[in-house]
């Protein structure tokens, strides 16, 4: 299957690259099918709609940048995504890419949870959490005078 993408042009996909989001993503409820497109030699992955090329999100697995990040999924989410054990899950967070890149932030309050075996996912909005929608990827640095 070939699709047009925002960042990679035309891409040929295997079924293994596809992930279904039963309810879409918040704000993009009509987008149900996405492809996971890793950016080679980088920690970034693109979550690309297969229906609309301009609907694409830059994501990372959060643990390299936020080593203490942890979430607990409720039973309803685990049931919806058919999660039985921890290694069923891939966890990503969506980035807001900024210029300069050092100002890029990650949305830790709404991770994208994917069952890697069933190829189904959901963006989970966490409540009662210290996480916010904008956490800097790179700590602010103070320039020496």
Account of the protein in words:
It is a single chain. The chain has 145 residues and is mainly beta. It is built from one helix and eleven strands. The protein has a single domain, classed as BH3618-like. Helix content is 4%, strand content 33%. Strands 3, 4, 5, 6, 7, 8, 9, 10 and 11 form a nine-stranded antiparallel sheet that branches. It has a two-stranded antiparallel sheet with strand order 1-2. A hairpin with a 6-residue loop joins strand 5 and strand 6. The mean pLDDT is 93.
At a glance:
The protein contains one helix and eleven strands. It has 145 residues and is mainly beta. The radius of gyration is 16 Å and the shape is globular.
Task: Sum up the structure in keywords.
145 residues; mainly beta; BH3618-like; 9-stranded antiparallel β-sheet; two-stranded antiparallel sheet; 1 helix; globular
SSE order, one letter for each helix or strand: EEEEEEHEEEEE
Cα distance, first to last residue?
55 Å
Biggest beta sheet summary: 9 strands, antiparallel
Strand percentage, roughly? 25-35%
The CATH architecture can be named as Roll
Return Rg in Å.
16 Å
Helix content percent band: under 10%
Instruction: Tell me the number of helical segments per DSSP (H or I, 4 or more residues long).
Output: 1
Furnish the topology, listing elements before pairings.
Layout: E1 2-5, E2 9-12, E3 18-20, E4 33-38, E5 44-49, E6 56-60, H1 75-80, E7 89-96, E8 105-106, E9 112-115, E10 120-123, E11 135-136
């Amino acid at each position: 299957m070939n699709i047009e993408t925002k960042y990679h042009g035309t891409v040929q996909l295997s079924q293994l690259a596809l992930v279904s989001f039963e309810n879409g993503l918040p704000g993009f409820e009509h987008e149900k099918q996405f492809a996971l497109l890793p950016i080679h030699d980088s920690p970034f992955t693109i979550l690309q709609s297969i229906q609309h090329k301009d609907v694409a999100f830059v994501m990372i697995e959060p643990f390299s940048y936020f080593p203490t990040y942890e979430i607990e999924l409720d039973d309803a989410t685990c049931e919806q995504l058919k999660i039985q054990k921890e290694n069923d899950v891939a966890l990503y967070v969506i980035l807001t890419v900024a210029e300069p890149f050092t100002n890029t932030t990650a949305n830790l309050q709404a991770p994208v949870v994917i069952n890697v075996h069933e190829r189904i996912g959901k963006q989970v909005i966490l409540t009662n959490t210290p996480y916010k929608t904008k956490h800097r990827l790179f700590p602010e640095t103070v320039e020496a005078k």
